[in-house]
Design brief:
By secondary structure, the protein is an alpha/beta fold. The strands form two sheets. Strands 1, 2, 3, 4, 5, 6, 7 and 13 form an eight-stranded mixed β-sheet that branches. A five-stranded mixed β-sheet has the order 8-9-10-11-12, covered by helices on one side. The protein starts with a strand and ends with a strand. The protein has a single domain, classed as Metallo-beta-lactamase, Chain A. Bound molecules: zinc ion. Zinc ion binds next to α4.
Length: 261
Amino acid sequence: MIKVHVLPCGSTVVDEALPFSDQSKNPLAFTGLFRGKKHKVRVTVRAYLIEHPKGLILVDTGWDDAIRQDARAYEGFFNYFASPGFLPEGEGIVDQLAALGYRTSDLDYCILTHMDIDHAGGIGEVKDARRVMCSEAGWQAANKRNPRYLKRLWQDVDVTTFEDAPHDLFGDGSVVLLPMHGHSAGMTAVKVGGKDHYLLIAGDAGYGRPSWERQVLPGVEWNRKETAKSLKRLREFALDPHCEAVLMTHDREKTKDAFVL
Ligand SMILES: [Zn+2]
């Protein structure tokens, strides 16, 4: 039996045009620049814990506990302006794991869908996982000069990369890491379960139902063409009767706390 826990890891506030570009005709609306508070929406930040007979897998980490002290200094101006983060007490990744009876050293894998701060923020807190992993393309992009990524977060973390192609973690099809580029270089989705019953952890490949149902592009992406391709793939998964759920990190729709596959 495989069990996937959905872990709420705080939230972030963004312009409504960031997840769904059809909310504004202004192509820069997603930045929030010259836009009123009424256009701001609070979206979830989620991580996932997969209890699998072959290993314990964390997918993403959410924000680092350190964000509580001074979010602006922690995130840097660029990130804070576009999406200030909030992490209530008890929602940090270490606390979330503890609530399920685990220590970070119990983790066999920490898989990062990509290295944005709201997904990889807690990487330093889970560095004693047996293996911390990110796609090679995502890792290369995150270590270039780009204010979007905070390299200091992983300076003392040993990160293993996997190639930019479907990566079958246990060789049995039950956990497959899938390239789902567009939001960022090397974005990875995680397909969990069997052929007849599985779910897709989509990271930021989409932001909610409009992303796949109406193919609404986000306000900003690393590569628009690749994002559009990923949205098509998300729709295929979402409409597949064998796929119980497509889980998106910032989806404002409620989801179950846990899935049994
Ligand atoms: Zn995100």
